[in-house]
Amino acid sequence: MTKTVSVQYHAAVDSPVVNERFQNILPLGIYSGAYFSVIPLDNTNINVSALVAEISDGTYQVRIANDSTEIVPVTELAPCIVLRWTYTGVGVADFTYTNIAVADIQPDDIVIGVVLYTGGGSISGNFDYTLRSTPDILEKYLAVIPDTPASMYLWVLAGNVNYGSVNYLVPLQKTAIFTAPAAGYIRKDLIYVDTDGTVKVTAGTPVAVPGPAVAPVFNGKIALAVVSLTEFTTTLTKAEVTDVRNFVIASSKLYSWGLSGTPTNGFYARLVGGAPTWAEAKRNCHFFLDTVSVTVNASGMCKVPFAGTIIRAYVKIEGAVAVTPLIIDINKGSESVSPTSIWNTTQANRLTIPVGSSYASQTSFDVTSVLENDEFFVDIDQYDSGAAKMTIVLTIREA
Q1: Domain chopping of the chain, boundaries
Q2: What is the spatial distance between Cα 220 and Cα 237, in angstroms, rounded to a whole number?
């Protein structure tokens, strides 16, 4: 039996209904803060800075926040710090910081990171944020944000980048320290991801006041931010950081084409919002797939009424993959062109939900260009019995 949580207009609502209603609407993960710092001469505790996160116990989901630094126990055998929360139905259900072994991470854990030791029981002062629970939101991919409290360092949030056919996972990390230019000079520095997937900072050319400062040259690199510095710069705030990520463009429209499941109709298309004009924001097309039809080569079609660029694909299922990873392919064609996979070269990049999980996303494609009236087809290339109703979203930026 599938349970649907809904609230009628003017109906009374308590917190359990609200928290269950918002399950899976906002991506889980850490939205801000939660950075490690060492406690001098202490190898059994670690500081975790203030944070904001979305967390779930599998049924209910809430926003949690801590406005102060927390001291959390840690050991060399259990160096991974996670957030856990369980709805109890009585009073306020608090979340907890827990140190565990990496192998003991649970599906609902919000992972902050791993504290690295020297091997002799001493905290090294270095941290690994590769496993961190980062919300799958394009706006936050590789965003550059100030330190807390502000310093001459900046943070780069996690994300993925492609250079040619190579995809790199860039974990959350702190940049190298910035230095102010000499007296009477100004400078613009560049933060970018290099061709080996590492985050680097290149200092710009100092220019005498009043300038203007010389804009840095990207040289084909994946540029993230430009940092403006003067002789008086002692801390870096939002005012000094200019976002130059070319995959996040505020002036462009993003359209998501949904493919989702229902128990009756197989695949069919339905425009949301009545009969919208294509100048309106609601350019969504939903495909409904029943549980029985989620099998190998089940397929449906969606036509895109504008030219653009594919920037993200996402799939979420009810339940979890039980035995065999669920693999989903998306093919693009038109009335005159036979459909081919948007991962026609790198099939390993197809949407793949691993065993025990319920979702997957991808920002790496072999084909990204979309022409007006192109058609997209979905194939279930590998089926798993744990996959019930599912939702697939293909996000396209209009040209």
Answers
A1: 15-128, 138-243, 254-398
A2: 27
User: What is the C-alpha separation between 302 and 313, in angstroms, rounded?
Assistant: 14
Burial of 67 (0-12, 13-18, 19+ CB in 10 A): exposed
The two tokens of residue 184 are 């009477």
Confidence bin at 93 (pLDDT 50/70/90):
low
Q: What is the mean pLDDT of the chain?
A: 78
Residue 264 or residue 230, greater confidence: 230
Model pTM score: 0.53
- Closest by CA to 256, choosing from 302, 293, 224, 210, is 302
399, 307 Cβ separation under 8 angstroms: yes
**Residue 120 or residue 116, greater confidence:** 116
- Residues 331, 376: contact at Cβ < 8 Å? yes
Can you tell me the distance from the alpha carbon of 206 to that of 117, in angstroms, rounded to the nearest whole number? 40
Instruction: Please name the fold of domain 254-398.
Output: Jelly Rolls (2.60.120)
Q: What is the CATH number of domain 138-243?
A: 2.60.40
Q: Which helix (H) or strand (E) holds 20?
A: helix 15-21
Q: Distance between CA atoms of 124 and 144, rounded to whole angstroms? A: 25
Highest mean pLDDT among 16-25, 87-96, 333-342: 333-342
**Per the structure block, which two tokens stand in for 44?**
């059994």
- Taking the C-alpha atoms of residue 343 and residue 353, their distance in angstroms, rounded to an integer, is 16
- Phi/psi region, residue 241 (left: phi>0; alpha: psi -120 to 50; beta: rest), is beta
Tell me if the bond preceding 181 is cis, omega within 30° of 0: no
Q: What is the pLDDT of residue 301?
A: 58
HSE at residue 254, side-chain half, CA atoms within 13 A, is 16
Q: How confident is the model at residue 16 (pLDDT cuts 50, 70, 90)?
A: low
Give the three-class secondary structure for 140. helix
Q: Which of 148, 156, 138 is nearest to 201 (CA)?
A: 156
Instruction: Pick the closest to residue 389 from 288, 269, 291 (CA basis).
Output: 291
Share of the chain above pLDDT 70, in %: 76
Q: Report how far residue 332's alpha carbon sits from residue 369's, in angstroms, rounded to the nearest whole number.
A: 10
Q: How far apart are CA 23 and CA 356, in angstroms?
A: 18
Q: Which CA distances in Å does 319 have to 3, 58, 59, 353? A: 12, 10, 11, 12
Checking DSSP bridges between strand 285-288 and strand 254-260, what pairing results, if any? parallel
